[in-house]
Specification:
This protein is α/β, with parallel strands linked by helices and 388 residues long. 59% of the residues lie in helices and 10% in strands. The protein has a domain at 1-65. The chain contains 18 helices and 8 strands. Helix 8 runs antiparallel to helix 9 and helix 9 (120-132) packs antiparallel against helix 10 (137-154). It starts with a helix and ends with a helix.
């Protein structure tokens, strides 16, 4: 029994050394490092779908926003087509240009024309409205007296009837200013332009050139504003735009430029000469003397010239425009006026002040920036556009 017990003990000892002797276990440990690069690959594979999903979102968003944005530019592009048709009507453009003055008057006159009884309070209210529209004291007093006479003559009782009386009175007051410029009878017809800096003188010359060309007239420009740095270049640009010859001298004398322009117009058979002059304030007496010299030199070039001396006024300055008219008229003997920038001011009533105190013909008015926005003055159109 004892020997049998000894026979069984060796078998368990033999398998014990065989188990640790298994060397294949170390083979996976050596191959583990190559498995490490596999991990980044897995990471890249997992990141790839994330980037793909992120990139898919902008792709889907782009087509959605593109069709929505596409119609919006197309819709406005089709709408501007009717606008040119509206601009063909000068009355509508004049009404739009005078909108600031009209709105100011309209809001104030709404109480006057509201249908109340015509009494002294109503006349006082009307007086305030006319003064705030920059019509001036003289014109306002004249209009009030005339409206009173019309009310008495026609037996008007209601405030709403005052509107017609005021329109008639204002039309009669500014009517004498309506004298269209007649350029027949002289060739070349010389128009001398004057005005303070910033009034729109050079721009008005460019627009006048276009206006006369539309009447079949040939035009020549004289760049006589030799004081302002950009004036010559600005006039040359207008000349190129209208395909008109511009006579200019770099740093030359204004009078000499005008003289040369008239001689060139005579030689070429030009119909109209538009002579620009340097902008100046009426208080600058030495500059006022220089512009008188320009007029004298023009007369030497052509004895009966200048045939028209036009003062360009900025409507924004209100009653100051009247002061400029007086000073320039005394210095040069004005024959015509141009009132610009009526579209940018609520002081369009200054025309009434000019008509009352210095009724020099208002040849043209400007109500916009485009080349066709300078037109001959019409008293009735102006009043209708001013008072609805």
């Amino acid at each position: 029994m004892f020997s049998f017990f000894k026979k069984k003990s060796p078998p368990p000892v033999t398998p014990a050394p065989e188990a640790p002797a298994v060397e294949p276990v170390q083979v996976p440990v050596v191959e583990t490092p190559p498995a490490a690069p596999v991990t980044p690959v897995d990471a890249i594979i997992t990141e790839a779908p994330i980037q793909a999903e992120a990139s898919i979102e902008p792709i889907t968003a782009a087509p959605i926003s593109t069709p929505v944005a596409a119609p919006s530019p197309v819709a406005p592009a089709a709408e501007p087509t009717p606008e040119p048709a509206r601009k063909l009507s000068w009355t509508e453009r004049l009404k739009a240009g005078l909108s600031k003055t009209r709105d100011k008057l309209g809001k104030s006159l709404a109480g006057v024309f509201g249908g109340g009884k015509i009494d002294e309070d109503l006349y006082e209210e009307l007086e305030t409205v006319l003064l705030t529209a920059d019509m001036g004291v003289d014109a306002t007093n004249h209009l009030l007296k005339d409206v009173r006479d019309r009310v008495s003559l026609k037996g008007l009782k209601d405030g709403s009837e005052l509107k017609g009386a005021l329109k008639e009175s204002l039309t009669e007051l500014i009517g004498p200013l309506e004298k269209p410029l007649d350029v027949s009878g002289h060739k070349p017809y010389v128009i001398m332009m004057a005005g303070v800096n910033g009034a729109g003188k050079t721009t008005s010359i460019g627009k006048l050139a276009k206006y006369f060309q539309s009447q079949g007239k040939s035009v020549l420009l004289a760049a006589g504003d030799t004081f302002r740095a950009a004036a010559r270049e600005q006039l040359v640009a207008w000349g190129e735009r209208n395909n008109v010859t511009v006579i200019t001298q770099q740093g030359g004398d204004a009078a000499a430029v005008c003289f040369d322009a008239i001689k060139a117009a005579e030689a070429r058979g030009i119909d109209i000469v538009l002579a620009d002059t340097a902008g100046r304030l009426p208080t600058q007496l030495h500059l006022m003397e220089e512009i008188k010299k320009v007029k004298r030199v023009i007369q030497k070039a052509l004895p009966e010239a200048p045939h028209e001396i036009v003062l360009v006024l900025d409507a924004n300055i209100g009653q100051n425009a009247l002061n400029q008219v007086k000073v320039f008229d005394e210095a040069l003997g004005l024959t015509g006026l141009i009132l610009t920038k009526l579209d940018g001011t609520a002081k369009g009533g200054v025309i009434a002040a000019i008509a009352k105190q210095r009724p020099i013909p208002l040849r043209f008015i400007g109500v916009g920036e485009t080349i066709d926005d300078l037109r001959p003055f019409s008293a009735r159109d102006y009043v209708n556009a001013l008072i609805d």
